[in-house]
Amino acid sequence: MSTTSFTVHRQTMEDFFCSTDLSERIHIPLICLSVVNIIFALTATMGNTLIVVALQRETSLHPSSKVLLRNLAVTDLCVGIVSQPLQIACFLTLLYRLSQICHYVYKVSRTASTILCGVSLSTTTAVSVDRLLALLLRLRYRQVVTLKRIYGAVIWFWACSIFTAGTSYWDYAVWRALVISSTSLGLVASIYCYSKIFLTLRRYQNQVRDNAQEQANQTIPPSKMKRYRKTVYSGMCVQLALVSCYLPYLLVSSFAYREMRRRQSAAFYLAVKSTVTLLYFNSSLNPILYCWKIKEVRQAVKDNLRQLFRSSNQQLRKDTENNTDSAECR
Predict the structure, then answer these.
(1) Largest CA distance in the chain
(2) Does the model's pTM come out above 0.90?
(3) What is the spatial distance between Cα 175 and Cα 10, in angstroms, rounded to a whole number?
(4) Judging by beta carbons within 10 Å of its beta carbon (0-12, 13-18, 19+), is residue 15 exposed, middle or buried?
(5) Measured distance CA(293)–CA(299) in Å, rounded
(6) Which residues have a Cβ under 8 Å from the Cβ of 91 and sit 6 or more positions away?
(7) Residue 98 has pLDDT above 50, yes or no
């Protein structure tokens, strides 16, 4: 692609998302989207803060799973602190017709969203791969899946996401192709892993049903089966939530950008921004799934909340006593 066509393409997209003429036609929807993003930003920030603190204290989870869950929670926390406020800022600059500021905010928002959503998708995919390796490798799992390799994978996720975000400043079409292809690849890889897991577990159940206990024991020890299934189901719930939140954006972005280059359509703008908001909602949904499906995390969150409320009540009681003593002295 030539430099001229690349510049026109990029400017057309940025001008579209910051078009003051477009804002007049979607004034009310922009306000609604801003309110929804404010709510989701607050829930994502508070929920993932609790999860990060809980994972810091929780020691019963497997180290590799804990690292991946912590990375996912930190990424979701950054979505609530960085990506969604930037998205809200884009809406506000558009509402107040601050076109030049909107251009800069949109670039930063696009970069942050690409990095954080890319890491979130990669980490969720890694969770499914980790569960499949635990099933297939059995006793060799701890030797193959080490903490050093898990940390290396996490660093690789961040590096690839940063590279993908950087391509948007070089060639918008390449950026969009990378985003769509990496998202599709991550979803397909996760579906394959969980399908392989369930087929293997069904084969194990058939072996037990046929009284082939000796053969079944060689596959997975029965004492570990229940715990393994819980981790698989919890990971699958997180994966299903991610698919539900990411798939609409994947479908819309596959054709919406091409149409937006042809005409400034308010419907396409709202379709893209609504699916991006749904994509951000995944960061608010994940903490709920952690507490629902992972008993250890749920208990740690409860303990942290009890301690927080106890400290708040003690501080309030001290303040009340101090105020009473001051009043008596007067």
Answers:
(1) 84
(2) no
(3) 11
(4) middle
(5) 11
(6) 30, 31, 33, 34, 37, 273
(7) yes
Q: How far is CA 23 from the centre of its chain?
A: 29
Average pLDDT across the chain, whole number: 81
Residue 188: alpha-carbon gap to chain centroid:
17
Three-state SS for the chain is: CCHHHHHHHHHHHHHHHCCHHHHHHCHHHHHHHHHHHHHHHHHHHHHHHHHHHHHHHCCCCCHHHHHHHHHHHHHHHHHHHHHHHHHHHHHHHHHCCCHHHHHHHHHHHHHHHHHHHHHHHHHHHHHHHHHHHHHHHHHHHHHHCCHHHHHHHHHHHHHHHHHHHHHCCCCHHHHHHHHHHHHHHHHHHHHHHHHHHHHHHHHHHHHHHCCCHHHHHHHCCHHHHHHHHHHHHHHHHHHHHHHHHHHHHHHHHCCHHHHHHHCCCHHHHHHHHHHHHHHHHHHHHHHHHHHHHCHHHHHHHHHHHHHHHHHHHHHHHHHHHHHHHHHHHC
Q: What percent of the chain shows pLDDT beyond 70?
A: 81
Radius of gyration of the chain (CA): 24
Burial classification of residue 28, based on how many CB atoms lie within 10 Å of its CB (0-12 exposed, 13-18 middle, 19 or more buried): exposed
pLDDT band at 8 (very low <50, low <70, confident <90, very high): very low
Q: Which residue matches tokens 């989870």?
A: 61
List CB contacts of 281: < 8 A, sequence separation 6 or more.
40, 245
Residues in the chain: 330
**C-beta of residue 10 within 8 angstroms of C-beta of residue 172:** yes
Torsion sign, CA atoms 32, 252, 108, 51: positive
Burial status of residue 273 (CB atoms within 10 A of its CB: 0-12, 13-18, 19 or more): buried
